[in-house]
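Hey, can you fold this one?
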Amino acid sequence: MNDWPRRARGFSLLELVVALAILGLLVGMAAPLTETVIRRGKEQELKNALYRIRDAIDAYKEAADAGFIEKSALGSGYPPSLEVLVEGVRDQRNPSGSKLYFLRRIPRDPFAEPGMKAPESWGLRSYDSSAENPQEGEDVYDVHSLSGGRGLNGIPYREW
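Sure. Predicted structure:
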């Protein structure tokens, strides 16, 4: 009843080659896009980590200026290290010895070397150093990434 000749089922070699070429083209286009998405995610992590640390440093400074934290007469009022923000400092308002805490943990720089601990992954700037040439000192006025890379916006991570 059916006059059509029976066709062999399956794919011809030409169809298979064309399908593989299209698949290879799509994978080739998706790989750089995936890399950009991952990098953008790390950049967002860096922004969030810098914000949290800088916010904690500012809160420490405000508490020191308000007299809630003991500071020396010649001190800047900034924390002596990043660890102090996590370990806490004695609250001068409360004689029972309670502490003020500013961070739960020190976030890690997402662009740092894989083996580095979180506090070591940041470059520190003291109150006495310039913004153009940040140097460590007796306090922590600011933090920056130690990565030599540049962001997708063209600005080096060290300057974020």
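Strands lie at 89-90, 99-100, 122-125, 142-145. Let me know if you want another pass with a different chain boundary.
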